[in-house]
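Consider the record:
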Amino acid sequence: MLISVIITTYNSPDFLKKCINSFLFQKDKDFELIVGDDGSTQDTKKIISQYKNSKIKISHAWHNDEGFRAAKIRNEAAKLSSGEYLIFIDGDCIVFDDFIGNHRKIAEKGFFARGNRAMLSEKFSQKLINENTNINLINFKNIIKLRIQRDINRIFPILRFTNYPFRKLKKRKWEGAKTCNLALWKKDFENINGFDESYIGWGREDSDLVVRLINNYIYRKEAIFSTGLVHLKHKINSRENFSKNDKLLKKAIIENLTYVKNGYKKS
């Protein structure tokens, strides 16, 4: 089964490079990358072109910069995907070498998989980027030290318990499932028409997707203790449209929506 990883980015070439590099060392190599570029300058395209001779297939979806349109660019990236299973992450995230393999093990028909993340400090984020520090520095041996130094905000996302027994304990819970680490079958994505492109500006487009999946009888399966990744710290995006997006989400919940017209494929 080919897995398609969709990486969302916007004018953060240094972060994107670190993100892509982390996929070069995956133990499971049956995957492709699609960069969903929300209107970046040519600097991002130049970074992607550096991997043209890589053994990993990397595609680039881009649209004009008309503000924060993560929902739309993720749909555009999904259109370029060849895999039957999609994993969404952000371009400011770094994965460990078991990320693809563990997501593959957790993948199950009738479920989407919700992973988690640990946030790094700004100082340690810059260390990883500027000094080309290896992600393997974040491991069981030194994770306590990193936590004491406040270079990482949580330990649990880094730990691995592949036989974690409570993966289906919160099957109908949408809260906490985010596209910084979210996986689902492409067919399920298509059946609800992907992301609702009515979400413009930061927030709630991923929650809306998950709510509609659950409404369509595709339930949550935890990918914690298996696929946790780390998030590089950066300036927070403007949240001026959050209240509008929150109203759209509440509408999806109240009306038990599954399919949206303004989505992956236009009706």
In short: The CA atoms of residues 96 and 136 lie 8 Å apart.
